[in-house]
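User: Could you walk me through two proteins back to back? I'd like the raw sequence and the structure tokens for each, with a short line separating them so I can tell where one ends and the next begins.

Assistant: Of course. Protein one, sequence then structure:
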Amino acid sequence: MPLTEHMRQAGVTPRLMKTTQKIKCPRCGLEFSLFQSRAIACVGCSKAALNCEKARCLRCDLEFPLYGPIVPTELGQRNVSVYMNKIIENYYKQVGRNSKR
């Protein structure tokens, strides 16, 4: 999906578009986005805080590399991973995640 002018004005970038692109789990076939994977399946994982370069299936918990299904290069895999972690970190700062929970 190409970026429209309205999307650009709203702050949408090509990297953000990659994180919302649907990927398919190689084991169970569930389709989900990297954003969903990081926000739901990877919560609490210590690797997620270290810019993990994998996606985790929401259904079967299989971890698989971003290289291939989302990005064509290993460098792209690292860039998307770092970018995704910044988005999740920003989200938790904005919603005021309570450390006592």
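----
Protein two, same layout:
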Amino acid sequence: MKNFRILLVAVLVFAGFTAKAGDVFRFGPRVGMEVNSMRLNSSLFDGDNRAGFTGGVMMEVNVPLIGLGFDLSVMYCHRVNANTVKDGANIAPDESTLLASDSYRKRDYIEIPLNLKYKIGLPVVGKVFTPYIFTGPSFAFLTSRRAINEAFKNKAFDVAWNFGLGFQLFNHLQVGASYGLGITKSVAYLTPLNSGTKIEGKNNYWTVTAAWLF
């Protein structure tokens, strides 16, 4: 009888831990798009505002009771590069054609963002709606071609820092928006442009994603 009681207690403890594990560790698919500017209306999804798309999987780890945790994602990202020419530059026609070309502006990456996340617990509605904020680095590995032309090549590795906010619905759906501030330059200059134009070669972008976590 004593052994049975010990076994029963062990089963109950294990069952309780398993039930709580879903609150501590979760994962699921994550998809979204990158946009040129954040607009709080339907024009957010306009074709001229979309600058790429992303999709992959996300893992979330939460510290019970305090609302703090982190998430880690592995994402495929098709990005229309946000490189810009410095104001007042005198661009030659052939240089303008190059900077507007798909080979210069579009890149594909495997991106790994790691975010520290804080969920803001709300009384009564917390099980239905929970806002959160997050920040952290993002590491992107180029999968498309490096060569652009004789003057430029894409860099194989890119780093940005994300700042974002979002909300969680019914403890499963998470919708978030973030701004990625480029830290490293995504383009290497083999030779300068003939006009001497200075180019901002960092990836700076807005991203809107939705994830379903189990």
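The first strand starts at residue 25 and ends at 35.

Let me know if you want the two compared in more detail.
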